[in-house]
Amino acid sequence: MKGLTLAALAFAATAVPCRGFSPRPATSTAAAGPSLRVRPVRSSSPVALRGASDGDDFASSSSSSSSSSLYDAAPTKKPFTFGILTSGFPPQQLLVPVVKFVTFQVWRLMMNELVTHDDQGRFVRESFQAGNDPSPLDLPEGANSTPRYKLYLGNPCPWCHRVKAAVALLNLEDDVPVTTLVDDAEKASKGGWILPAPAAEDAALDIAQELIEGDLAGVYNYCYRDVLGEGERYRGRCTAPLLVDVASGTIVTNESNEIMVLLNDYARRKRERAPGSVAATVDLRPVGMEEELDRATKRWFDLLWNGAYRCGFATSQVAYDEVRTSSLVDVCGSSAATNRRANSFMNRPHRTS
Prior knowledge:
Layout: H1 2-15, H2 29-32, E1 47-49, E2 58-60, H3 84-87, H4 92-114, E3 116-117, E4 123-124, E5 149-154, H5 158-169, E6 178-183, E7 193-194, H6 200-204, H7 216-223, E8 242-245, E9 250-253, H8 256-273, H9 290-312, H10 317-347
Parallel strand pairs: 5-6
Antiparallel strand pairs: 1-2, 3-4, 5-8, 6-7, 8-9
Helix pairs in contact: 5-8, 9-10
């Protein structure tokens, strides 16, 4: 019976709006409207009724336990605080805007250091800084020749994903070994990429240590050693994907689309030299379709691939809304147009013989 009574009291406390909940005398009912009448509980364990200042819960004054309480006991050890918000000095109306302003300025400073923006907070993807219409990759001189090129790719980077997919589709893992970078900004001297422990095959080859140890910034520094002054470091952004000619210790290019074109051309020429090569069974850039592929690449680069970066790196609401709105409309329009062309093709009569 006691349990049912407590359950009824708890339901009443949650169902009825509680204004400093306390039973009113019967004489005030007519003037103040209906009141909540609490019937006394007859039990050997008196029930204490605690008001709003105590947490609006009901508990036994003689047999309360942590398992039946709605709230946790105050910890004996708490982190140190200044009590600024509870003391009221400085006023919260002044404190909150100041903290928001300082936090935003620090965040925006870090974003501007990370990537390039215009004066309106729009993300600007600068032209890739390494490589400029590089020459085709050299084919190996013999079957047992050591790889001349090395790719540096990072799994968190979507631009690296497309290059890694191209390497797999063209079956070039042995021709162009891949070094999988580790994203660790705390250990990197610049940027966020560090190199993993040198692989056994790298240690056995005649490769500069700067290309297999340290971080990606060290790779850039080494590859630009001939143009940098003594003690000078590469000042550009150390980005991946990165294709390096390890024989000469120079950068081929760090632009993902250019790397894919070079790899596809390499695989095609390898097939022509050795018919039946597995690497040549896939052609990612068929002859005669170059212009069409370039137009499609440009469209989806601006619309979706780079659009995600323009949203993520925007430092103003205006810049973010511009990309979000235009990209969403264009993607939906492109999808609808693609579906219409596909439906038109599927619904037209086809010859079966």
